[in-house]
Amino acid sequence: MERGNLMNTIQLQCFLAVAENLNFARAAEEIHITQPAVTHQINSLENELGVKLFKRTTRSVSLTTDGFRFLSDAKKILNDMHIAKMRLVHKEETEPVIFSIGCHTSRELIFFPDLLKKIQLFAPSIHPVIKTLPMRALNNLLQTDGIDILFSFQENEKTAPGKFVELYKAPIVCVFPATHPLTFAKVIHIEDLLSEQLTVQEPPNTHPAVFTLQSQILQNHNPSDMLFCESYEAAITLTKAEMGITILPDIIPIRDPALCYVPFEGNISVPYGIYYKTLKNQPLIKKFITLAKEYFSSF
C-alpha cells in the first residue's frame, strides 16, 4: 500500500464533521476547508476502509451501518492522537493516568463533577476521558478496552459487556408535564394511559423492562397517538413541550425539575450501576466504584 493511501487525521476529522452535521457544506465550514476537499477526504477514507460510510443523495446525507460502527473508533483514534501529542508537548515528571468513563445520556454527567473531584484526591494525575455514545457503541468500547467503566442499566448475562456492580434500583416511572392531571396520582396503572399520547424510545435505546411496559400500553394506541424518538434527551424534550408523556427508569439525581415522575403500580425497578472488565490490579476503578456507591447511597 502506498504511503499516500494510509488513513490520516484530516480524513478522520472530515468523517466526524460530516457525521455530526450530516451535511458536507457545513462540515467544510466547521473544519475550515473546501467542500470538494471534504468530499475527496471521505472518498479516500472509504476506499482505504473498503466500505461506504455515508448514504448520499441530492437531498440528504446519513451514516451507513458501517459508518455508525466506525464512529466510536474514529473518535477514539483522534482522541488518542491528541493525548499522545500533548504528552510530547507538555513533558511532565508524572505521566497522566487516563481514566475513560462511558455513559448513555448527557443527563448522567450531572453527577460526574462530585465523583471526579473526589477521585482526583485519590489520583491527582488522573486525566478523565468522558464518552457519551449509544449503548451498543459503549458496550463495544468496554469489551475492547476503549473505556474503563460504563454507567448503565443492568443487561441480561448474554448481552452484558462486563461485570456489573449495582449502585441504585431505578423504579420505572411515567413522566408528565407539570400541568398534567395525573401528576397528583400516587401510582400509575396501565389503564390510566390508554388515552394518552406517548413519547416512545425505540429499542435498543431503552431498557427491555421499559420496552415491555410500553408494548402493553401501545397495543391499544393508534400510531397517531405515538411519538417515536431515539434518545432519553429527545423523550424528555418532547414531554416538556407537552407533546406526550414518556416512560423511563427514574434516576433521581438526573431528574428534570420541570417534570413530574410518578411510579407504576407494582414498584417495577431496574438496577443501575457500573460495568467494568476486571478489578484485578485496578485500584482506580475500585476507588471510583466505592465513591459512586457512597454518592448513590443518599438517594
UniProtKB/TrEMBL annotation:
Domain HTH lysR-type residues, every copy: 7-64
InterPro entries from the UniProt entry: LysR_HTH_N, LysR_subst-bd, WH-like_DNA-bd_sf, WH_DNA-bd_sf
GO CC annotation terms, alphabetical: protein-DNA complex
Keyword Transcription regulation recorded: yes
Top-level taxon in the UniProt lineage: Bacteria
Any GO MF annotation of the entry: DNA-binding transcription factor activity
The UniProt record lists the keyword Transcription: yes
Key words, A-Z: DNA-binding, Transcription, Transcription regulation
Record PANTHER family: HCA OPERON TRANSCRIPTIONAL ACTIVATOR HCAR, TRANSCRIPTIONAL DUAL REGULATOR HCAR-RELATED
Family: Belongs to the LysR transcriptional regulatory family.
Protein name (record): LysR family transcriptional regulator
Organism encoding this protein: Velocimicrobium porci
